[in-house]
Amino acid sequence: MTAMLDAADVEQVIGRLLSDMAATAGLQMIRLGVRTGLWQALADGAALTPAELAERAGIAEAYAREWLKHQAVSGYVDHDPATQRFTLPAAVAAVLADDTQSAMVDGFAGMLAAMAKDHILVEDAYRSGYGVGWHQRSAEHWLGMDLVTRAEVVPALVSAWIPALDGVEDRLRGGATVADIGCGYGAALIALAEAYPRSRFIGFDYHDGSIASARKAAAAAGVADRVTFEVADAAAFGGAGYDLVLFVDALHDLGDPVGALRRTREALAPDGTALLVEFAVADRLEDNANPLGRLLYASSALVCSPNAIAHGATDPLGSAPGEARLTEVATAAGFGRVHRVDVDAPLNLLLELRP
Ligand SMILES: C[S@@+](CC[C@H](N)C(=O)[O-])C[C@H]1O[C@@H](n2cnc3c(N)ncnc32)[C@H](O)[C@@H]1O
């Protein structure tokens, strides 16, 4: 067996592993730059020495030097060997010195750090076959999710996604009732409450810690009179006659997604709408061999599927179900119309469901 191995193939595998280890370490370095203002300090494109960067960012010179060396060999910062100065290319500044994009990177990096911290829970679950609920995760995971939602979902939800739904925006302007299932820290509903002051909003999540944080966030935003949050399982949330029911990056986490959509159909007004926000992936595994696919299948195996299993799933949807599988689930729950919303959102897949 060993004799038949091609040494070059083995070298390639080792190279790939090394590259994955470097990427894992590199993400921490990128996040460090976001959180300590190093990217912002380089954002004007000036060619800086480590001492000058340290002065601008208010950190020790030794740390600025080590951080710059890493970013230079990683290709995020240009290094001039003649002057020993470092420059941030404009394209990198556009991503990493931008508040929204850097918040998204910070959020994802926080969740990935929490996944590493919570690894033993998942390792035990793989051995026992039991699940790991969202409530068992480190707080950094919940916070990271909230950051990603605020950066990646909220701006588009308000400015483009709601207007792209059939007749929904007019109802929200006039005064509608909206539910968000698996609402987490409530960022989506709070943003909608700010945009549509005549409407009322209620978020549901089984995790009491998230519901407590969502209530605090609504009070801090001054919308707690119109946005409330309740602890409830997705398949048994309360209320009726909703004009809109949202699932933002949450349906695939559920133990019983068909049950949750059945309950949604029952709780909608006769001409109400449900909106599923999921990641934009291809239907077939073999078509998802790309960085987004890698990230999502890892999140699925480490977080979303363990949560679904903790809630009774034996065949969880996983973080990358794709349009065809989601349509099957919606149809099994009795929805008669499932329509992919045409929006310019490379990372997101939006499905509009009508009873
Ligand atoms: C990936 S997070 C998304 C949170 C939020 N929608 C956002 O976009 O920030 C998934 C959420 O679903 C919630 N969840 C998981 N299983 C649930 C269940 N069976 N019933 C209600 N909520 C559930 C989790 O507690 C978590 O807040």
Overview of the molecule:
With 355 residues, the protein is of the alpha/beta class. The chain has two domains: 2-97, Arc Repressor Mutant, subunit A; 152-354, Vaccinia Virus protein VP39 (Rossmann fold, 3-Layer(aba) Sandwich). Helix content is 53%, strand content 15%. It is built from 14 helices and nine strands. It has helices at residues 7-35, 38-42, 50-57, 61-74, 90-96, 99-117, 119-128, 139-164, 168-174, 187-195, 208-220, 257-267, 291-310, 322-332; strands at residues 78-80, 85-87, 177-181, 200-205, 227-231, 242-248, 268-279, 337-340, 348-354. Strands 5-4-3-6-7-9-8 form a seven-stranded mixed β-sheet, with helices on both faces. A two-stranded antiparallel sheet has the order 1-2. Strand 8 (337-340) and strand 9 form a beta hairpin. The mean pLDDT is 97.
